[in-house]
Request: fold
Amino acid sequence: MVEEQVLLKKSQEGDIAAFEKLIEGYQKRVFNIAYRLVGNYDDASELAQEVFIKVFKSLRKFKGQSSFSTWVYSITKNVCFDELRKRKNKKIVYIDEDIKYDNNEMQRQIEDDRPQPDIIAEKNEVKKIVHEAIQELSQDHRIVIVMRDIQGFSYEEIARILNCPEGTVKSRINRARLSLKQILQKNEELLKGYYVK
Amino acid sequence: MKECNAAKESMSLYIDRMLDDRSEAELLLHIETCETCRCELEELKVITGICADMKEVELPDDFNSKLHEKLATIADKENTSVRNIALRYRKIISICSSAAAVIIITLAMRGFFGDNAKFDNLARDYAGSGMSENGFSITGVDDYAKTEEGLSDKYTGKGSEKEVNTEQKSIRPTEALDSQRLPKPQTASFQMSFTEAVPSNRTDIEILVKEPEKEFVKLEEFAADTGASLLQRNSGNEGLTDENEDWNGDTGQALIVKYKIVNAKYGKFMDVLNANFPTLVVLKNADLELISKRIEEVEKSINDTDAEINNTTDSEKISQLKSMKAQLEAELEMLRQEYEYIIVSIELVQNEIVEQTVGVPGQ
Reply:
C-alpha cells in the first residue's frame, strides 16, 4: 500500500513508468470487466485503454477520498456505460458474429485471422451462452453480475464502486440473477447438465 | 405465494452466504416443501457457478505497448503546453521592451495617413476586454462586418449581412489596445511588416483551432477566397525557437500557420470564420495567463465541493453539489483541452500595398 502511494505520487507528477507500474495490477481486471460488459474482445481492449488514459489524465484530481482501486473501477464502469449508451441506437455487427435467419443461425463466411482469445476462452458452449445472455441484461444488472459473479467483488466493494448503498446492491444482484435466469430459460436443459458433465 | 416471494428475495444472499441464521433456516424450510422455489434456487446456483467458472481473458499482446504510446503522447502534449505558455510569457516580455519605440512609430504613422476614423472604431471595438465566466470574452466587431463587402457567403450559407449576428458570433481579436488605444504588437513578424511604411493600424491574432486536421483544408480554402496570404507555416515549435534561447529545441505538437489579411476584410473574415469553425477559440497571450489562473480556481472549487459533499448529509444538497461539481469538471476539461490546439496566426495589414511590398514567402 505504501508502494502504491509512492507510485501514485510519482504518477501525479507525470511519471509514466511509475504510472505503468501502478496500474499493473489493475489492467487485466479492468480489461475483463470491460470485456464482460461490452461482450467483444477488441472493444474491451480499446475501452480498457481509454480507462487508463482517463485515469492518467485525471490523476491530479484524485485526492484519495476513495481507494485507488475503487476509483479505477468506477472509471471503468463509467467508460463502459458511456460506450453502451452510444451503442443503444445502433446495431453493431462483428464479423465473427453469427447471422440470424429466422430461427436458424448461420455462421458468417468471413475468415477472421485475428487472434481471438475471447472465442478460445469461451470454447465451452455453456459459458458462451451465459456470456451472450449477460449482454442482454440491462446495464445496471450487467454490471453487478460481472462484478459479483464473475469478478468476485464483495457487496461492499460494489457499493463503493457504483456509489450506491449496499442495500441497493443486494437487491440489484438478486434481481439481476433472476433476470439472467429468465434469459437462459430456453437453455435450461443445457445448464442443468453443466455440472453433471 | 407470499413465502415464495420472500424466498426469492433471499436466494441471492443465501448463495453468497450472507443470510443471517434465522432467514437461512426459513428459506431452507420453505424450499423443502416448495418444489418451484427449490428448482429456482438450484438454477441460480448453477448460473452463478458458471459465471464464477468463467476464465479470465488475457490482455492483447500489444496492450501495454499501445497504452505506453498513448501515455507518452499525452505527457508530451502536456509538457509542450506548459512550455508553450512559458514561451508566450517570455515573448510578451521581450516585445514589451521595444514597445515604446513601436508606439512612437505608430503614432507617426497615424498622423501621416490620417485614417483616424477607422482607427478609432478599431480602438473602440477592441477596448472592452476581460474574461467571460467561461474564460473567453466575446465582443462585437460590427464596424468591420458592416463595412465589409464582396465576400462569398458560401461559408456561412447566409444570404445577407443582416442575417449574420455579429454580436454573438464575432470574437475579439487577441491584440487588445493598450491604455492609449494603440495597437500592441506581439509577434516577431510585426517588425518585419512594419518596415514597410504603411500600416497605421494592424494587429496579429492567434486562433486556436480544435481538430485542425478536419478544419484545416476548409480554413485554407476560406483564407484563399478572402484574400488572406499564407506568410508562414511551421511544424512543431520551430517558429518559436528564435525568440527563446532557453528553449531546449524539442518539437511539440504545435503547428503554426500565419496568414496575412487586409484590415478592411478583418471583420467579415472573423465573422465568417467563426460561423464556419464552431470550435474555434481566439486567444491572446493574456488569455492564456487567465486560463491558467482559471484552471487553478476551478480545481480549487472542485476540491471545495468535494469537501462540502463529504460534510453534508442532506441528500438534496449533495445532489446539487454533485451537479455543480460535474459542471466544474466539464469546464476544467475544456480549459485543459485548449492547450492542445494548433495555432493559426492571422496578421492584419491595412491595405493591398503592404501585401505587394512584403510579398508572400513560400511555405
Remarks:
- Chain A has two domains: 1-89, 122-191.
